[in-house]
Amino acid sequence: MNQMLRKPGGAEPLYQSVKRFIVDRIRSGDWPVDHRVPSETELTRDFGVSRMTVHRALRELSGEGLLTRVQGVGTFVAAGKAQSSPLEIRNIAEEIRARGHTHTSDVRLLRQEPAKGRAARHLGLPDGAPVFHSLMLHRENGIPVQLEERYVNPAVAPDYLDQDFSRVTPNEYLMQAVSPDQVEHLIEAVAPNAATRRLLKIDAREPCLLLERRTWARGAVVTWARLTHPGSRYRLGETFAHRP
Amino acid sequence: MNQMLRKPGGAEPLYQSVKRFIVDRIRSGDWPVDHRVPSETELTRDFGVSRMTVHRALRELSGEGLLTRVQGVGTFVAAGKAQSSPLEIRNIAEEIRARGHTHTSDVRLLRQEPAKGRAARHLGLPDGAPVFHSLMLHRENGIPVQLEERYVNPAVAPDYLDQDFSRVTPNEYLMQAVSPDQVEHLIEAVAPNAATRRLLKIDAREPCLLLERRTWARGAVVTWARLTHPGSRYRLGETFAHRP
DNA sequence: GAGTGGTCTAGACCACAAT
DNA sequence: TTGTGGTCTAGACCACTCG
Q1: Contact at CB, A190 and B206, closer than 8 angstroms
Q2: Which residues in A lie closer than 8 A to residue B231 (C-beta atoms)?
Q3: DSSP labels, B125-192
């Protein structure tokens, strides 16, 4: 029966089971973008639940941006360009997983070096003071979506260099290690330089969305991050309240 | 009957009517923060609809952050009311004047036309329905900084075409004419097309920051605006305190 | 025990799109 | 005409909180 679909733990609503089943198919790659999802009638039969229950699952996934529904036509896996809110401090890995996709990342650089120029000024440190510097490349389903260059104040996060950033993103680590009390964001459209183009695998004509973020904790700058995204693969968004 | 609660236009789902009723009570101040909302049973009786319908309305309002629901206790008007947004609806003219600079603008287009493609979809209107379409160029100290292309729902702002937009920006007019209750923003980096390059006086290599904004009032889309800025002359920025 | 919200069913009618 | 999603009903059982 449909009990087989329930989570082992037991107490999960049926519509959650249906949602989980669909998200798993998308996450695993079984259902690519634009793939047609079984109709409500089919899912009703397959899961042995009522149509209202299936409908709720599909409606919620549609509201979460994972599916697109067209009356009279069907339900499809949403194309969904990457989209996030600049308001909060977003976690790129979580954001990607929330879309049902796979997040992977490479550590391209992780070291201590003398602060110079803008990095020193943004961190509020004297020129030549030691800083931590990291460069990460984040991918969504294998496609580069964010280049994360980050400078970290060693006084605030002394263990930064010892982390395994293949398991926990720098963002995740810093958020739990030193919860910041102030944030600054700047958003710009920029032309990528040669190194950025190579890492993001884009050509010179593609503009990039640059999000710069600084965070503070108890008056000291924690980190200055430059997050560069290919314009064709990422955008920032936010909705206040719901659109009906 | 519950027909009295329906919108004059007719076709509104019942759960929408219930939502609208509650939102109106909150917005008007009748129901302050922490006010207890009538139970599902009471609303079912008052509206003459089934409990499932009432439940959906309350569940969605809860998801949108307007209500808080506690099983076994009741439903209450949520506190909070979002932190100030970095992407509040900005008024380009005011923003420029706040920097001590001079704002000028040209009306390049202002007319009614049949909605097509994206404009129709974004406004939630059928293809070919009449819409208002305007194109404005905004300058800071004589230098173009924003190209504002805007589509407006005639049903919501019927007098749009009669305004003098050399004195009041479309944004200012719409904000005071129909105060929106919902906003959506999207930010992208894009390459400008030929017409945009010519109007903004930039060359093909310069990326542009595109801010798309939709606003709603009482469930209907008011306007969809595409604000294009030269990457070298404009950026979005924001500082705020983080909630611990 | 009474009242609340959370979930679920088995039907129904409708609007819409494709054939 | 067929199949799709959108809405709605009138019940039902459950978990939970409170007096």
Answers
A1: no
A2: 188-191, 207
A3: --TT-EEEEEEEEEEETTEEEEEEEEEE-TTT-TTGGGS-TTTS-HHHHHHHHS--SEEEEEEEEE--
Strand C close to B55 by CB, under 7 A:
yes
By the 8 A CB rule, do A19 and A60 touch? yes
Question: Does nucleic acid strand C have an atom less than 7 angstroms from the CB of B71?
Answer: yes
Length of chain B measured in residues: 244
Domain spanning B2-77: CATH 3.40.190.10: no
Of A183, A186, A215, the CB nearest to B235: A186
Interatomic distance B2 CA / C12 C1' (Å): 20
Nearest CA in chain A to B85: A87
Residue B232 buriedness (CB in 10 A; 0-12 / 13-18 / 19+): middle
**Chain C nucleotides with an atom closer than 7 Å to a protein C-beta:** 3-12, 15-18
| Kind and range of the H or E run holding A238 | strand A234-240
Nucleotide D9 C1' to residue B57 CA (A): 15
Residues A48 and A33: beta-carbon distance below 8 Å: no
As a CATH number, domain B92-230 is: 3.40.1410.10
Whose CA is closest to A81, among A6, A14, A143?
Answer: A143
* Homologous superfamily in CATH for domain A82-236: Chorismate lyase-like (3.40.1410.10)
| Per-residue model confidence as pLDDT tens digits over B71-84 | 889 999 876 433 33
Nearest nt to the CA of B50 via C1' is D9
Give B139's strand partners: B104, B144
pLDDT of B10 above 90:
no
Can you tell me which residue has its alpha carbon closest to the C1' of nucleotide D9?
A: B50
Q: How far is Cα of residue B23 from the mean position of the Cα atoms in its chain?
A: 16
What the block records as the tokens of B229 is 């800025």
Asked if the model's pLDDT at residue A81 lies above 50, the reply is no
For B128-186, what is each residue's pLDDT tens digit? 889 999 999 999 888 899 999 999 999 889 999 999 998 899 998 998 888 776 777 88
Q: How far apart are alpha carbons B121 and B12 in whole angstroms? A: 18
Q: Which residues are B152's β-sheet partners?
A: B132, B223
**Among B152, B181, B214, residue whose Cα is nearest residue B20:** B181
Contact between chains at A184 and B239 (C-beta distance less than 8 A): yes
Domain residue ranges of chain A, discontinuous segments joined by +: 2-77, 82-236
DSSP A20-69: HHHHHHHHHTSS-TTPEEPPHHHHHHHHT--HHHHHHHHHHHHHTTSEEE
Q: Which residue has the tokens 């899961």?
A: A47
